[in-house]
Amino acid sequence: MKRQCLVALFVMTFAPLVNGQIGLPSAIGGKAKSEAAAPAPEAANPRAETEAQLAEARRQQEAEQLETGATPPPGPQGLPITDRKRLFDRLVVAYSERLKLLDDLDRLGKSPPETSNQQALLAEFAGPPPYSALRVDALRDTHDATGERLRSLAAAERALEAQKLGLVDAQKRGAEALRLADDKLARAQGQDEKEKQRLNRELTALRLQLAEAELANIVIAVDRVRLEAKALQALATEMQRLLARVVPEQRLSKEEFEQQQAQLLGSLGKVAAEMDRLVSDNSRRTAERERLAKLVGSAGAGPDAGRRLQLLDERMDTDRVQLMTLSWLQTLLQAVGDAWAQRYVALRSQDSTTRQAVITSLSTTRDELLSRKQLVHELQQAARLAVREQELRLSDTFLDEAASADESARLDTLKQRLLAYQRVDLAAAGLERQLDRWLQDFGFQGKTASVDNWQLGAMQIAKRLRAIWDFEMFAVEESTVVDGKTVAVSYGVTVGKSIGALLLFVFGYWLFSLLSARLQRVMVGRFKVNEQLASVIRRWAMISLAVILVIFILNLARIPLTVFAFLGGALAIGVGFGTQTIIKNVISGIIILFERKIRVGDIIALGGMTGHVTAVDLRASTVRGFDGVEALVPNSSFLENQVVNWTYSNPRIRREIRIGVAYGSPVQQAAEIVAGCAKDHGQVLRDPAPEVFFEDFADSALLLVLVFWVELGPTLVSRRVDSDLRYAMEKRLGAAGIPIPFPQRDVHLNVSQPLSVRLTPAPDTGR
User: Fold this and answer.
1) How deeply is 13 buried, as exposed, middle or buried, from its count of CB atoms within 10 A (0-12, 13-18, 19+)?
2) What is the CATH number of domain 585-645?
3) Is 242 exposed, middle or buried (0-12, 13-18, 19+ CB in 10 A)?
4) By CB distance 3.0 to 4.6 Å, which of 199, 348, 465, 706 could disulfide with 657?
5) For the segment 661-713, what is each residue's pLDDT rounded down to a tens digit?
6) Domain 652-735 class?
7) Do 417 and 318 meet the contact criterion of CB atoms below 8 Å apart?
8) What are phi and psi of 492, to 5 degrees?
9) Is there a contact between 588 and 539 (Cβ–Cβ < 8 Å)?
């Protein structure tokens, strides 16, 4: 029963893992199976194929709409129809989006990366220097915009790759669900059950089709993003080379400087006019507020007056915020005018002192701008939070019409505050970008940090560690077939993921070891399981949990187990022959552990060696001989050779000692003395009692045999018991005067006749 429970536990533990990880779906339905076995050729016209799929989806959508024109019946039968309609609608959207993506791909493949305005701007720098500083600024703006677009495309590609991973998993789950639906449909009994399973199978197939369509769209979108990024990267590289050539040769003419100053004066005039309008509106709202305040204080005032007063206070606060931001904007425009004046001076002068003074002035302006910009950023965040809270308040469905109108007006007021802060923030960002450019043109490298600046050092160290942590050691690719095309998904394995996985494995293994030790103690103490069997269960539990932990960590690191399929096959071929003996010993160990023919503590005799079994492991067992020497015996030896287990069913063994007494000795007395020696020994069993037998008349002695029983154990040595008994018998027989003879023979001479003596002549030696 215990063996059956262990086998069942093992199967229950590993069966889900094998089903979920190794048996990944290789095909989708009958059509997909053929595609997986032999990849289908590329479609000659992807757009035509997509248009056909879209037309079929729309046809099914229209048929579903005609079928569900009436009110769907209540109950479970109405649910699949609703789901089918939703899936058809999403399929139409997916195929329409694919057509748009294909058009974008075609357009990007035919059109140049730069626009007509960008081409004209690049053509302006084809001539000899000097170059207009304003046009150089325009080129810089275009280059920065291209860089922002490249960063946006990179972020979009990362997002699409992450989305592709999810859709690949959804496609696999859909394929698995479709196989299960096919099995359920094949096993369905009865018309109702078959119809139910048929509808379920159709819905499952539609979900799988939708997942494949969305996955195909993601693949095309990734291609489009990569194509656009490739073209823009070439354009950005060309602009970078052009900037490196024209920036040192830029000049700011007097006419351009005056033109720029005139534009700034016009902007300042607009800001001043806007401030005057706000002051006038605020004065009007102040008078209105005084009137409403008196009305609210009167006895006949209704709730509408209070709400109008509160809304008016919000608008007046917004006016004050707008006046404050316009004042800041005015200051920024003045700073921009001063910065342009400093730039004009620096570009027209080659004096180092003058340039240093310009750099100092511009850097001071930049520092003041950064402090003001931080304040504006914090106020902007607070205003954005207030807008969000008001939007949530406005979404309350229990508001009446009047209250909803007031809340909407309050939301518009809060949005105006946010726009005012955003306006100043954009102006400050533009000035900061210009100041950074000009300072770099004039040779300003920024404030140098001292060596003792521990914060800078810590930031640099953290940056390097972050780079090491995010370093991608290798990438694992997994492919799937969608619409006849092979979609490859890449899973990057970084140093951080590897370290995290290793730490997780160490922690998990440590935790499992504690739990398995606790399990072993509970089995031995509470359930009275044999210590050896409990140790075996603990080992197998640790192996099972370690395998589960490894699979979990691989899934966490997005490393599919199919990656190790080739490695497993190669190892099976190379290692299979070399591990025959090990596998044989392991299997033999499992048989011994479950049959329990050989246990720890048994005394066995195998191959001329006798000793105690001290350990039984999976591959080999440890036997300690009576001489203290330990031997590792392969477990297969216990099954292939004859083994004598002295303590298999009973640890008691019978011992015999033979002793001879001289002829003429009192045999009965000698037997009683020998039996008394055995009875007096502490390790000789009383039951069965020792016995002495008169065995034989030997050549030189009367032979007695002592038969006694001892119980074998780790502390008992049978040879020592035999030795003790022989000492005692020799002593007691000697004290009783009973000799122990030695081998002897009697020689008898016949002296009745004289002995004859003959002389033999010596041989002739030739001397």
Assistant:
1) middle
2) 2.30.30.60
3) middle
4) 706
5) 888 889 898 888 988 898 888 888 888 889 899 888 888 888 899 988 888 76
6) alpha beta
7) yes
8) -80, 135
9) no
